[in-house]
Amino acid sequence: MVFFNGSTYRPFLLSGFPGLEDSHPVISILFCALYLIALMGNITILVVIRVEQSLHAPMYLFLSMLAATDLGLCAATLPTLLKLFWLNIREIDFDACLIQMFFIHVFSLMESGILLTMAFDRYVAISDPLRYTTILTDSTIAKIGVGLLLRAVVVIFPGPFLIKRLRFCKANVLSHSYCLHPDIIKLSCSDHRINSIYGLIIILITFGVDSVLILLSYVKILITVLSIASREEQFKALNTCVSHICAVLLVYVPMLGVSIIHRFGKHVPPLVHIIMGYVYLLIPPVLNPVVYCVKTQEIRTRILEINIQSQIICDIIHKLDKKNQGHI
Known about the structure:
- By secondary structure, the chain is mainly alpha-helical.
- The chain has helices at residues 24-51, 58-87, 94-127, 132-135, 138-156, 158-164, 181-185, 193-226, 231-239, 242-264, 270-295, 297-327; strands at 12-13, 91-92.
- The protein has a two-stranded antiparallel sheet.
């Protein structure tokens, strides 16, 4: 059996939809539309929060972190996906694959951490509104953001080096159009139990702990809300959490689905695994901006104002052009 180490291993081969290679250009239109929605939506949120002074509150600063993370996740997966579906280029260099894997997992962990901090933000806003801005100051929010980034980088940093110690056989076909840790180690011919244990520990101490803490936060929020006498105030308090709950479900439900299929769905068609992989990585960046724009009145109002102002400016420019043409 021929072995390769990390330094001499030939490029990996990315996979799209097996058996549907002739339809890849058509499928790419759907992916382009999804990426365009994700990019425009998250950029819009960042711009609106940046220019609107009234949105410089903890809730919206955390939302801007989530939007930036979603943009990073799109940027990490978009190049290889378009290269495969548009140009039918399947090869990706071993080191380039490890770099992409690193950034995909870093942004995924950051997204989970940001959702946890947003749950804490809602808990403080509902349970102790008078101290809300003194607890979550700008400097505190900045430290939280740096801490989440450092946590993700430190946790994922050993991953590429653990993979480089493995030996690989001739099998080099990945299951997706991007590189993930479980997908790469499955191609190894040597013992990769350490990598599997490492991956499991990462999931438990990050996504596992984050999800438990998010759940505990909402238990505390629910207890606080139920202690409010007025039904109207109860509804108003819970309504501020709807967008965040949707964002949590958009991340954790696909993740849970992927994990269940990966662990127990050995007889599930490969196409289902592939589709779930895309759902896991694409749905949160695409739908998070939609959810927050629909459910958050301040953002929705500001976007409408910007659109109206842009329309007015366009009308003025159009009238000036017609006036100048008339003089000519």
